[in-house]
Design brief:
Blueprint: E1 5-11, E2 26-32, E3 42-48, H1 51-55, E4 62-63, E5 67-68, E6 75-76, E7 87-95, E8 108-111, E9 125-126, E10 135-142, E11 146-156, E12 158-163, E13 166-167, E14 183-190, E15 198-207, H2 209-212, E16 228-237, E17 242-246, E18 252-254, E19 258-262, E20 266-270, E21 289-290, E22 292-293, E23 300-303, E24 309-315, E25 319-324, E26 327-344, E27 351-357, E28 359-360, E29 366-367, E30 377-381, E31 388-390, E32 397-405, E33 416-423, E34 429-433, H3 436-452, E35 453-454, E36 456-457, H4 470-483, H5 487-499, H6 527-539, H7 543-561, H8 585-606, H9 610-631, H10 643-651, H11 657-673, H12 682-694, H13 698-706, H14 713-718, E37 731-732, E38 736-737, H15 754-761, E39 764-766, E40 773-776, E41 786-793, E42 796-805, E43 808-815, E44 820-826, E45 833-835, E46 838-839, E47 846-852, E48 855-860, E49 863-869
Parallel strand pairs: 14-23, 20-30, 40-44
Antiparallel strand pairs: 1-2, 2-6, 3-4, 3-5, 3-7, 7-8, 9-22, 10-15, 10-18, 11-14, 11-16, 12-13, 12-15, 16-17, 18-21, 19-20, 24-33, 25-26, 26-31, 26-32, 26-33, 27-30, 27-32, 28-29, 34-41, 35-36, 37-38, 39-40, 41-42, 42-43, 43-49, 44-48, 45-46, 45-49, 47-48
Helix pairs in contact: 4-6, 4-12, 4-15, 5-6, 6-7, 7-8, 8-9, 8-10, 10-11, 10-12
This protein binds beta-D-glucopyranose.
């Protein structure tokens, strides 16, 4: 077998991205090999200004030469200076541990965006008519052969860009959500194929979106009253000349068929008002109105670093009922984010109304009260005369049920198709085991993540909230990063979070829109330290820390300045949604103060800021001392005596050794006292299972995981949950649906148990940032017969599968090239373990290291291994 194969080339986390505006973009790849112990020892990157140069091996922009380096991640470009619009073709080759060069990788590409303000000739345009969605257009001529055409576009509000009757790109809800007064992102599309000879038309449909529509708990018009567009189409002709068609006062505007649209409220489309052909050539726009020009715009315009929203799949309804005359309810059997497409025949002016819901009332009608003021209602007014197909453009919500009224006649089962849409965050993890309840739990976690990863990590995807709640995000981030490659998604959101940090250092409760809500809240604002740190650990990317270190320090200083004797005040949401357990808010807040301080110290160490490291390490110790003095008794009881109090103290290393053991005992006693049930809210839940594993209480953890009595994940699942509920008592046998004032069925925070499925049940963990070193330490239990998990790390695929075999265990492990791992095989002695049928210690590439925690620990490099213990 040969050497390495470099693959998965990415620039700033994206595959072949267009319009990068980072001065020194970072390049990453993985090296593949099915050999054991394969490593990269050197690499060479070529960056060329043309495909031809690259093919000829000419790195006219950058040729690193052969560099002795194991690194395959985040190599910062350091070639010729990059200018706006440059095309950078690149490839890489790698030398293995025997100094054999690989073939060159398949070529990849990135292009530079518009780096200078002066690159923008476009002006902000809009149209303030009575309809919700102005249509804007401009005709232009193409009279020579075109080499390439590129469009750069953004909006305040949402836009759908059209070129000669076709949609530009696949992205939805562009340009996404930022605090528009601070920052606004454009996207870049190659539209060469959409141009034609002769007359061409570029058009756009604008919608209020987050800019002018309703946003969580605040209302409409938060940033502005009407939407605006900024777009610039640049054509390069074959003869070398260029031409720019930019938004300006020569564009024309008109009303369209979308009478109403709003992310929270829904969309109404009157097909009788459609204007066929408006976005293509040969259309007479003589009666279209002139557009409005917007004055000054102070926000920074940059290339979107994030992940666009896309349509991912379609869902067929599972069943249809008719709970009352004239109303049909479609059940998709799964709650999902997006909308439905309908297919209908009827007379002009007939109006079909769709209402969306997560749950049903006992009489089979849709339960919409928990959506609060979010109407979540779409309506379609028929054009008449033949089959009509329609789906909304600028609204979404998560739902399982759709109520249809106003249907001409009776809808057939194919009347509706579900359309699943959310940020296109690549899947990274998969978990499966012999217990169907756990498989459903994992599915529910993943669906809840999909539903709430829409531009920003939201608390919920249906009611009038849908906000980037910071607490929920930090609680769920480690689970999220097992399920998906969320690096770019969080890189973008962390900028939103930074933008919303208050001048006094307080991180907000939500971002964007931070300044409209509270700030400085324990376990919420701490997202400002926890999320960058988690991304650094998972993706091995120091830039997360470089970029956010200043904010981390300001947050810790804020906490310090707002504490007494290093104890934080009893304020905030506390352990939100706990069950008959009241963790004192000062205990929780002081514990989180300690955590943020420690993470800041660790970040300082990574960044080589030795003084800061010492300073914050010392502060951590002082907080620790204050915590113990104020809250911890000699018998290890922590003020409040709640599961969450013990969990936080144990997880954040706040207790001296002797008290640790006692606190651990109190934790387990409390769980047992509740007939082995948890009482934690979202804050305590995050670390509950991990702590139980740490203190050697796997059995208790498994029982919590497998319970199906209240409160538990199993209870929800037994009662039909297809996503994770906001509260343990969202629905109970005794009371039915909880008060609708705050009762979402799609909140990911309690799904934070997902981390444990990967890290502990399957046993896949990072031992060094970016999974450069890996630990595979499965913890069989809970009566599970087998588990299969895999995780696509930034270094490549890590897999762990185990199966109980008699008294022993078989574990299959896959470790990516250029990484090393420790594999913990439960066994009494190393001699009881084989690999590939031979004594493990003698197997190729396997070294016995030590016995630890009832397991034989082996060191391995890359490759696939089959361990069996007797
Ligand atoms: C949100 C939560 C959030 C909480 C803060 C709720 O309305 O849905 O997820 O963290 O408020 O108390």
């Amino acid at each position: 077998m040969g050497g390495l194969a470099p693959a998965r080339l990415r620039c700033e986390y994206h595959t072949n991205p267009l319009g990068i505006d980072v001065a020194a973009p970072r390049l990453s790849w993985i090296v593949e090999s099915d050999r054991r112990g394969a490593r990269q020892t050197a690499c060479q990157v070529l960056v060329a200004s043309s495909e031809e140069n690259l093919a000829a091996g000419k790195g006219d922009l950058w040729d690193t030469g052969k560099v002795a380096s194991e690194e395959t991640l985040h190599l910062a470009y350091a070639g010729k200076p990059l200018r706006s619009r440059m095309r950078c073709h690149w490839k890489v080759r790698a030398w293995d541990e025997r100094d054999r060069p690989s073939e060159w990788s398949v070529p990849a590409l990135w292009t530079m965006g518009l780096l200078e303000v002066s690159d923008w000739q476009a002006k902000w345009i809009g149209y303030d008519g009575p309809a919700a969605c102005p249509h804007l257009r401009k005709a232009f001529a193409v009279e020579r052969p075109v080499r390439r055409a590129t469009v750069y576009a953004t909006a305040l509000g949402l836009y759908e860009l059209r070129l000669n009757g076709r949609r530009v790109g696949r992205d939805r809800f562009t340009p996404g959500w930022t605090d528009y007064h601070t920052r606004c992102y454009y996207r870049t599309y190659d539209v060469t194929d959409l141009l034609r000879d002769g007359e061409n038309v570029v058009g756009a449909i604008l919608a209020p979106g987050w800019y002018a529509g309703h946003v969580g708990l605040v209302g409409p018009h938060v940033y502005g009253r009407t939407p605006w567009l900024l777009a610039q189409l640049e054509i390069e002709y074959a003869d070398g000349s260029t031409e720019t068609v930019a938004t300006d006062k020569s564009w024309r505007a008109a009303e369209g068929p979308i009478v109403e649209t709003d992310l929270l409220m829904g969309e109404t489309h009157d097909a009788r008002r459609e204007v066929p052909g408006w976005d293509g050539p040969g259309f007479d726009a003589a009666d279209w109105a002139p557009v409005d020009l917007k004055g000054r715009m102070d926000a920074e315009i940059g290339a979107s670093p994030g992940v666009p929203v896309r349509v991912h799949e379609e869902m067929a309804p599972a069943r249809m009922t008719q709970p009352k005359p004239g109303a049909w309810v479609f059940d998709f059997g799964q709650e999902f984010p997006g909308w439905v497409r309908l297919k209908v025949r009827g007379r002009a002016g007939e109006k079909v109304v769709l209402r969306f819901a997560e749950m049903l009332e006992p009489d089979g009608t849709v339960h919409t009260a928990n959506l609060r003021s979010a109407k979540c209602t779409d309506a379609y007014v028929l054009r008449g005369g033949g089959e009509e197909v329609w789906e909304p453009r600028f609204t979404y919500r998560a739902f399982r049920y759709v109520e249809v009224t106003g249907w001409p006649g009776e809808p057939g089962p194919d009347a509706l198709v579900g359309v699943v849409a959310h940020s296109a965050v690549p899947r990274a993890g998969a978990f499966e085991c012999s217990n169907p309840l756990l498989n459903r739990l994992q599915e529910n976690v993943v669906w809840t993540q999909r539903a709430n990863f829409l531009e920003v990590p939201t608390d919920c995807p249906q009611r009038d909230e849908r906000l980037g709640w910071t607490g929920d995000a930090q609680i769920f981030i480690r689970t999220a990063t097992y399920n998906a490659d969320a690096a770019a998604f969080f890189a973008k959101w962390l900028v939103d979070l930074g933008d919303a940090q208050r001048a006094d250092g307080a991180f907000p409760d939500v971002a964007p829109l931070g300044l409209w809500h509270g700030a400085g809240t324990a376990a919420w604002g701490d997202a400002g330290t926890i999320c960058p740190w988690t991304c650094y650990e998972v993706y091995g990317d120091v830039r997360f820390l470089e970029r956010h270190y200043g904010g981390m320090v300001r947050w810790v200083e804020y906490l310090k300045a707002n504490s007494r004797g290093l104890l934080r005040p009893a304020e905030g949401y506390g352990d939100w949604l706990s069950i008959q357990a009241d963790t004192p808010k000062d205990v929780l807040a002081t514990a989180y103060f300690a955590l943020s301080t420690r993470l800041t110290a660790k970040a300082a160490a990574v960044l080589g800021r030795e003084n800061d490291r010492e300073k914050y390490e010392a502060l951590f110790e002082d907080i620790q001392a204050a915590f113990n003095k104020a809250y911890v008794a000699g018998d290890g009881r922590i003020k409040g005596d709640t599961q969450t109090g013990y969990v936080l103290a144990l997880q954040f290393d706040l207790l001296p050794d002797d008290l640790r053991r006692r606190a651990a005992r109190h934790l387990v006693e409390d769980i047992k006292k509740r007939d082995t049930h948890l009482s934690t809210g979202i804050v305590g839940l995050k670390d509950l299972m991990t702590v139980l594993a740490k203190i050697g209480e796997d059995d208790v953890a498994y029982q919590l995981l497998l319970n199906d009595t209240f409160p538990s994940w199993g209870y929800e699942i037994k009662h039909g949950a297809t996503t994770i509920w906001e509260r343990w008592n969202g629905w109970t046998e005794e009371k039915g649906l909880h008060d609708p004032g705050m009762n979402s069925f799609c909140h990911y925070a309690f799904g934070a148990v997902g981390e444990w499925l990967f890290s502990t049940v399957a046993g896949i963990e990072a031992a060094a940032p970016g999974f450069k070193r890996i630990v595979v330490r499965p913890r069989p239990g809970g009566g599970l017969e087998w588990t299969r998990a895999q995780y696509e790390s930034v270094h490549g695929l890590v897999a762990s599968a185990w199966k109980v075999e008699g008294k022993g265990l078989a574990i299959s492990v896959t470790i990516p090239a250029n990484t090393t791992a420790e594999v913990h095989v439960p066994a009494g002695r190393a001699e009881d373990v084989t690999e590939g049928g031979r004594p493990a210690a003698e197997a190729e590439g396997v070294t016995f290291d030590r016995m630890a925690g009832g397991a034989a620990v082996f060191r391995v490099g890359s490759g696939a291994y089959e361990f069996v213990s007797r």
